Amino acid sequence: MKTQVKQQTILNKNGDKRGMHPNSQKNILDNINRNGRPTKDKSITGLIREMLDHDANFIAPGGSPDDKTWRQVIARTILYQAAKGNPQMIKELLDRIEGKVVQPVEASFEIRDTRELTDEELAVIAATDIIKHNALRRSQGASEEAASP
Fold first, then answer.
1. Which entry of 54, 87, 121, 135 is 20 to 30 Å from 69 by CA?
2. 10 Å Cβ neighbour count for 71?
3. Would you tell me the crossing angle of helices 87-98 and 70-83 to the nearest 10 degrees?
4. Which residues pair with 69 in a beta bridge?
5. Are 48 and 38 a contacting pair, CB within 8 Å?
6. What is the pLDDT of residues 16-49, one digit of tens each?
C-alpha cells in the first residue's frame, strides 16, 4: 500500500507562490549583510577573541603549568620564541611593545602657474605624461590579453 505524502504549499501574503522560492530576489536581498563584514559572532576573529580567555589545558614548549588561558599560553610562547632568538617573534614583540617603526616619507614639489613655464619645461611635462599614458595602456593591454582565452 502506497502512502501519499502531501506537501504543504507555502504562500505569500497575496495567497500565491510568487517570490517564495529560496533563490528569489526578495529572499536573497533579505539575507545579505548590508555592512559587508560578518558579525563578530560569525567571524573567525570574533571566535578567537572569545576563546582566548577560555581554559587552555595545554602547556606550550617553554610554557608553564600556571598558564590557564590561551591568551597566557600564546603570550608565553611569543616571549619564549623571542628569547630563543627567533627574529620574527622578536620583531612581533617589539612592534607590540614599542609600536611599529614609522618610516619617514619626504616629498617636495613646487606649484607654479603654467603661464610662467618656458616652452622647454612644458615640452618635458607633455613628454612625461605621454610616456606614462603609453605605459599604462600597454600594461592594461597585456592584462586584457592574459585574461582572454
1. 87
2. 15
3. 120
4. 55
5. no
6. 766 666 666 665 555 566 666 655 556 788 788 8
